[in-house]
Amino acid sequence: MPYKIVMVRNDPNYGKRRHKGLAAVHVLRSYLERHSALASELQVEIVELNSCWPQATELDTRWILSFEPDAVGLSCYCWNIGMQAGIASMLRRARPGIAIIAGGPEVSFDAEAFMAANPAVDYVVRGEGEVTFTELVDHLVSGKGRPAAIRSLNWRNGGTTCANPDRPLIEDLDTIPSPILDQRVDLFATDGEVMIETVRGCVYHCSFCLHNKGQTGMRVFSWPRVEAEVRALCEHPAVNVIWFADPTFDYDEARALRILRLIEEANAGQGVAFELRAEMLTPALIAQLARLNVVDVGIGLQSINPIALSNVRRASNLESFRRNVSMLAEALKDVGTRIDLDVIYGLPGDCYAGYMDTIDFALDLGGHVYYQPLRLLKGTNLAQRAETFGLEAAPSPPHNLERSLTFPHEDMIRAHHLNAGLDFLQCESMVVQEAIRELRDMARQASQKCSMATACEIVGRGLWASEARNLFRVANASPDDIPVHWRISELATLLTGGRLDNILPIGPRHDLATRLRASMSLSDGCAPSSSGYFHAAL
């Protein structure tokens, strides 16, 4: 009988960044099947769950049990740890003899505390997991060797837990087999979005991020490996978008150009998406990107507050940022590329006025603001220095900031107001976008000063006072399935109510509300913006 292992991926299954075609569990399986001394005795299955559906934990557990596994591996992140822990507990009750293994960033940096709080978990694989997981499986299957000899492993020894020394990082990344080249991922069974990593680590050391944790520099996959994977994906009929998971794709201009030219040669129409550093963009990179079908670009702005950026060890040249993003937007305007400008509110030293300035800066560039609260992720330098900056975060994942010395509770509420108005502004309807621009102009006539961020806050504050909190999100990463016609209706109701009487003139508000309601009966009333995903500068 084979030794049956089920590996559980549990990610948000909605909107952008789904990447169902590849994940850490696929890489772990490929490494295990290539390097395990007992690979011929293994039967490995991958189960993919939706972390947006936590009420399905019981059903998910029964699905896992239907494979009759001897061991279950749970991939743990801040967005799924509650579900994964619940699955572990249910598995233990249903099958007391099963080996339950947890790994991933949410359990790697406080493994002892996690195991104490989750007695159903037998092992925690810390950090980069390919070698540790393989050695552990070999031990479980053969019954030989000692868990104490497996580095980067936490394990139970009777009533106590043990923590083995850390393992060095894998020096030669090419020893990690490619699930793509080994055909260990059925791309026809995915949504067509496939994630690929060509590096591990990051050349930057932002203190809120885990990309450089335990690493002193960047490790890269060899060119032959990268070339083979990119060609295979470009030539595969089921692949719609290749998402490059590299934290800063353009850190090395020559290498980035080589990959981009390869994509153009292999399949110029292939959808691609990247995370870029604006200040690293060059005219050559921008010109080459314009020759491709770039569907999405993520660019980290985070904040324009120099104190906040200094506190998180992030250097930024705002003039270079503005110039390069503008050049990129112009080069990609005919493609319909969505350019996300990532923003974090609540960074140490930042304040609500600084957040408003950052939003206005991003909107002025025409970008789609992808906002997030500061998250004190386990293992980050900033989490270790939280007390220094007076940062108080929720103890439960995803560890969102609750308040700080410069961003108190009251200002976090104001940020929610602004974010709700921003969601209206950025929804794919020209009707709603133009309405909020008109609100801004009304406010300017009344007070002579009103930015787009202020206009968004006015909308959000009115919705909050109207108890329409079902329209609020903490972060862009939350599911947003609110129909455009609903947003139009809510905005019209807000305009005709009394919540804005002391802010905006009644006559123009009522006229705008009438036009909004009339638009709902028109065939194009809910039509997407003519500019595609990239909104014109406001």
Q: How would you describe what is shown here?
A:
By secondary structure, the chain is of the alpha/beta class. The chain has 3 domains: 3-163, 3-Layer(aba) Sandwich (Rossmann fold), CATH 3.40.50; 192-402, Aldolase class I (TIM Barrel, Alpha-Beta Barrel); 408-538, no CATH class. Helices cover 39% and strands 16% of the residues. It has helices spanning 24-35, 57-65, 81-94, 105-108, 111-117, 130-142, 223-234, 253-267, 283-289, 306-311, 318-331, 352-364, 381-384, 386-389, 409-426, 430-447, 452-465, 484-496, 506-519; strands spanning 3-11, 42-50, 71-75, 99-103, 123-125, 153-157, 160-163, 193-196, 199-200, 219-220, 241-244, 271-276, 293-302, 338-345, 368-373, 392-393, 401-403. The protein has a 7-stranded mixed sheet, with helices on both faces. Helix 8 links the parallel strand 11 and strand 12 (271-276). The radius of gyration is 25 Å and the shape is globular. It starts with a strand and ends in a 19-residue tail after the last helix.
